[in-house]
Amino acid sequence: MGHKSWSEEELRDVLNEFGLKNIKRISVFRKEVKVLAEVESGQTVYFLKGEASGQAFVERACEFADMFLGKGIPFPTYHQSESGWTIEKKGVVFTLEKKCAGNEKSSGSIEIVQKIAKALAKQHLISESVSFRFNTGTTWSLFGGNQTDNLGDYDENEQMIQLFEEKMYDHEMSQRVLQLAHEKRQLLNKHWPELPTGPVQGDFCYYNMTFDENGDISGIYDLNLAGDEVLVNECVAVGIYHSWIMPYTGEESSHDRFLHFLAAYQKVRKLSALEQSFIVPLYQLTRAFRFDRIEPGVKKTGIEREQFLEATLNILCEELAGSVEMGLSLKSTVEKRNRPASS
Prior knowledge:
By secondary structure, the protein is of the alpha+beta class. The protein contains 11 helices and 11 strands. The chain has helices at residues 8-17, 55-69, 110-127, 156-168, 172-191, 231-245, 254-268, 273-277, 279-288, 291-297, 302-316, and strands at residues 23-31, 35-41, 44-51, 87-89, 92-98, 197-200, 209-211, 217-220, 227-230, 318-323, 327-332. It has a 5-stranded antiparallel β-sheet with strand order 1-2-3-5-4, covered by helices on one side. Strands 6-9 form a two-stranded antiparallel ribbon. Strands 7-8 form a two-stranded antiparallel ribbon. α6 (231-245) packs antiparallel against α7. It is globular and about 65 Å long. Mean pLDDT is 90; it is low at 322-327 and 330-343.
């Protein structure tokens, strides 16, 4: 357990250990186990963050951020103490980072979707060029085994398939859903070690970013979920998030946003033929079995339950038509069944 609550005086002691002088202001947003404070020193504004995390991992994450910042990825600049990137006190590991320029966004546009795709691709180009490794996975990771909740072991996709099976076992259509899901996972698992992998930030989403007045990404925060990831897996997962989950102000459909995302990504980092061959099963599995789709879906009853099952099967049968470079279109290849598929 970490320290229950942190006073401003205690936080000043932490800042002193970081060697920070001339502190003008401390604004504390959280002071329990997870600590967050904005600190003004001279002309610079910092964030002091503290979590009950493993110190070795946090040190590694700061090293990763520093390396990628030097290669053009706008991670924060972390302030070092005499002993390293972190300070541990009473079970809480603290970091001190400069506040990034720009402002957060509460929703996205097609331009934001494309800029995030290009920034992710740039990170991936660096990821596959460096020898640095975390030796742990991310929350996107597949095939960890689910023996623990640790990054790399935890496999949300497998857990959601199991939840679907547990709650929907009594429906005939669910057996076809499960058959397709297991077939696609087996195919991916067979070739998973052959796909390019590298260290990534792990939560490459708009809510962890700041944007300048031109809408360009000026800062990327929060490396607590960083790890090593199969790059095309993160590409598809991040694309789905910003196409179906992120609040959106434009007129493009979710499908069109996803295709724009893939096309923008490829303008910076071209996916290999092997990676391209796995976009479709990754899309199908990830979208069909996102936790925020399955957890409410399995609670549905009556006609809504039927529609949820039908929609899940439709996603697992959906294909990407065309080429990633030229822009794609999604087409349904829903199997012929006795009843028509729902829209």
